[in-house]
Amino acid sequence: MANHKGLIANVDLRTHANNLAHRTKDIDRGRLIVRRGQSFSITVLCSDGVPPKHSLDPALYLGESDKVLILVRKEPQTGDTWWFHQQRAQDEMLLTLHSPADAAIGRYYLSLLMMSPDGHIVERSDRIRFHMLFNPWCKDDVVYLPNENLLQEYVMNEDGIIYTGAWDYITSIPWSYGQFEDNVMDICFEVLDNSKESQKSLEMDIEKRSNPVYVSRIITAMVNSDGDRGVLSGRWDEQYSDGVPPYRWTGSVPILRQWSKAGAMPVKYGQCWVFAGVACTVLRCLGIPTRLITNFCSAHDVDASLSIDVLVNEQLESFGGKDSSWNFHCWVESWMRRDDLPVGNDGWQVLDPTPQELSDGEFCCGPCPVRAIKEGNLEVKYDAPFVFAEVNADIIYWIVQGDGQRRKIREDWGSVGRSISTKHVYSDLREDVTLHYKYPEGSKKEREVYKKAGHRVTELTNDGTDPGQLQLSIKHARPVYGTDFDVIVEVNNGGDRDAHAQLTMLVVAVTYHSFHRGECLRQTARVSVPARKAHREVLRLRFDNYARCTSEHPVIRVKALVEALGGNEPIMRVANIPLSVPELLIQVLGKAVVWEQMTAYISFTNPLPVPLKGGVFTVEGAGLLSATEIHVKGDVAPGMKVKVKLSFSPMRTGIRNLLVNFDSDRLKDVKGVTTLIVRKKYTHVITGL
């Protein structure tokens, strides 16, 4: 190399212009962050002018080491390759690099070689680092999504809504994805770097990062910590004293930052909606269009039988059995073309980061085409049989008698996979996407899909049950946690003769994932039901009955069994009743201006007949403030209003959500959200003559 040091005086990455064009300015305004399949330009200033007939050659490396050298051609070639062109001025050169639409995402290093006319290297610049992401705006990228409104929601929106509760009583909680918050992108790449595949061979792993199928599958494995250095530990037994309870989180950013700061030690604790929220953050940050999905009455079919076997004893107490059905279960869908699968499998793909079952030896799930689930094509990868069962399995109830014999008492063919929901693109309303996953219940097409998938097909009545003389139903209002309420169990006699039966009713508290928390009430009665009439039993549920055993997502499960004396087979019904909690009130004073301090007041009235101890508010908001805890002094008496003050300075302009969570010893997971429009700070200059 010739000794012409100082020839390259300065390299301007033109970060502002490039990041604006690549829609990455919200990630970082100081570093160069680009999207693949889209050109970007840098300027090289020469100290004594551009030498005649000299040129620049880029030396490009992928990853932290120099082992993966990327060939950059001087002109476009057939196929997907990197190439560049340059323009000369008097004292500077403009170098424009064109990346292929299938380039690997990650950290790149660029050195600029000043070449003499005879092909010798005159000078080499320092290594310049930049980051590359997927590009859903590029039609040649396999994550291309040709709708700007969808891209604004599924890539750029930092705030979301997660649906919870039950299919017939859907509630929602706000969630801050915060994919453009400080250092989040770096942590997302840390997540990939800590995967098993990366630990085995970093070079091979980073080269595979061109494929969103590979990347998204790694993320579903790494968001949970089962078997690897993943982000979150899951826990469902409510023993959270050595960590943060899942219901206290209001966003992904504190979780990711804690994991990174602790050197890839798992954060305690998460459950399905937390796993899904973190996965959505990472996928959106890397440029893969992603949305969070909630499936109501979601089946967990361990043995791939397409049926969930629920065992109860003669006292209606559940026991044993590995299968289960959850009131709700959350996963994500990511948009991508599936070149590895037959035609017809592009579009939304199910990815489930909650550790449930092993997939190729890892606790991950997907990407599985939603279209394949709807059509019953269960041979496609990945994990199609498991996902199909989540939305289509039967629930079969069995009584296990004292002698160990089983007796089938109910087959429920229509409850699993109800009201599958996601946030609407154009508003904060709920969008029902059930028909993306399955044909209408009872339709001819649905029966064809069931046969194709190896699922039993049965002619059903409207409520998914076989008709008989006695009918059983459970009716209830939408109760509020802390109040007393009634549940009505009705036995209807559709026959021409009076019926005599024994009615057993059991009320228990359960978690949303069907973990039994305790018995609240039990009642048995001999009933006589006249022909063509109905008999009603009213169960009065008092706060004292259920408060001692409800969980952070309080759900009351009512089981009723009617056995006609000397008549029909026993009939069983089950109803899950979520108990609602009131929302917090948030009052923001004044207009929101970037970097100017503002004040918010958060208030909450204790609705319970008992005092609340250990109250704490958790507040966060992408672009507004990092997660902050405000502890309540003293107890909050019944009916008492507590009010706290919060001061903060918005950090970024735009529409921003301020999210608040309240927890205490007796009342948990109380949420509130308010929306702010943060404006630029304008300075007015007054001039005079």
How would you characterize this protein structure?
By secondary structure, this protein is an alpha+beta fold. The chain folds into four domains: about 10-135, Sandwich (Immunoglobulin-like), CATH 2.60.40; about 150-450, Alpha-Beta Complex (Coagulation Factor XIII, Chain A, domain 2), CATH 3.90.260.10; about 470-580, Immunoglobulin-like, CATH 2.60.40; about 585-680, Immunoglobulin-like (Sandwich). About 15% of the residues lie in helices and about 40% in strands. The protein contains 13 helices and 39 strands. Helix 3 (about 185-195) packs across helix 7 and helix 6 runs antiparallel to helix 8 (about 270-285).
Ordered list of secondary-structure elements with their pairings:
Elements: E1 8-12, H1 15-21, E2 33-35, E3 40-46, E4 55-62, E5 69-70, E6 72-73, E7 82-88, E8 92-98, E9 106-115, E10 121-124, E11 128-133, H2 148-156, E12 159-166, E13 169-176, H3 184-193, H4 196-200, H5 202-208, H6 212-223, E14 232-234, H7 253-261, E15 267-270, H8 272-286, E16 290-300, E17 307-312, E18 324-336, E19 347-351, E20 368-369, H9 370-375, H10 384-392, E21 394-400, E22 406-412, E23 418-423, E24 430-432, H11 434-437, H12 444-452, E25 470-476, E26 485-493, E27 499-510, E28 516-529, E29 534-541, H13 543-547, E30 555-564, E31 571-578, E32 585-589, E33 592-593, E34 598-605, E35 616-621, E36 625-631, E37 641-648, E38 654-663, E39 670-679
Parallel strand pairs: 2-11, 6-7, 14-15, 17-21, 33-39
Antiparallel strand pairs: 1-3, 3-8, 4-5, 4-9, 7-8, 9-10, 9-11, 12-13, 16-18, 16-23, 18-19, 19-20, 21-22, 23-24, 25-26, 26-29, 27-28, 27-30, 30-31, 32-34, 34-37, 35-36, 35-38, 38-39
Helix pairs in contact: 3-7, 6-8
